[in-house]
């Protein structure tokens, strides 16, 4: 799981000039900027497909919580969830702690954010969310190691296949095209990524 922020809805001021013998396709460099959108996406490593994608204007704690709730709703009968993400503060929020506690049926005092208990600090919340005994287990990648999260590979595909050469006349069109691409990818291209790194220690 991760967010892709600041996706620009750029409309080219002039149409592209198509390829012809001896000439490459040429694109207008001037554009009209229609604002940005944020994509929050969850990637199923085993199947190689995007399970849930949310496109909106922001990536607040509430937005991320809503995305996690929508993800969990895709398979209500799942016995266990392992969610991999980076260490962003919204990924270790009080609202996620409350969600996990509610899912686990825990009748405990979570404390007060910034003052006491599980909610006291980002570290105490992170420790709670990582608990392997829970049905929903969070795994946080180390700092500067977001490449360990396979959603980053999929974001690269999105950029190359859609965003880099896209022409979007509005934020609404950008949102629609992203969600259409997710559906197209899942239907035609989805397959597990094959890691080539074998985990060997680096030689000194």
UniProtKB/TrEMBL annotation:
A molecular-function term among this protein's GO annotations: nucleic acid binding
Stretch list, region Disordered: 1-24
Every Tc1-like transposase DDE domain range: 2-175
InterPro entries on file: RNaseH_sf (IPR036397), Tc1-like_DDE_dom (IPR038717)
Transmembrane segments: none
Top-level lineage group: Bacteria
Name this polypeptide is given: IS630 family transposase
Species this protein is from: Stenomitos frigidus ULC18
């Amino acid at each position: 799981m991760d967010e892709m922020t600041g996706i620009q809805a750029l409309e080219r001021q002039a149409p592209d000039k198509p390829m012809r013998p001896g000439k490459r396709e040429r694109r207008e460099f001037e554009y009209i900027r229609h604002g940005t959108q944020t994509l929050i996406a969850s990637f199923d490593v085993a199947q190689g497909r995007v399970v849930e994608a949310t496109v909106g204007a922001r990536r607040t704690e509430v937005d991320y919580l809503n995305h996690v709730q929508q993800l969990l709703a895709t398979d209500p009968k799942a016995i266990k969830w392992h969610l991999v993400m980076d260490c962003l503060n919204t990924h270790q929020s009080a609202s996620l702690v409350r969600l996990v506690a509610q899912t686990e049926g825990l009748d405990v005092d979570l404390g007060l954010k910034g003052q006491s208990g599980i909610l006291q600090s980002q570290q105490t919340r992170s420790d709670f969310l990582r608990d392997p005994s829970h049905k929903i287990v969070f795994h946080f990648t180390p700092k500067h190691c977001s490449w360990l999260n396979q959603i980053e590979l999929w974001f690269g595909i999105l950029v190359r296949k859609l965003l880099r050469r896209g022409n979007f006349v509005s934020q609404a069109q950008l949102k629609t095209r992203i969600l259409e691409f997710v559906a197209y990818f899942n239907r035609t291209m989805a397959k597990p990524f094959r890691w080539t790194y074998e985990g060997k220690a680096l030689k000194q």
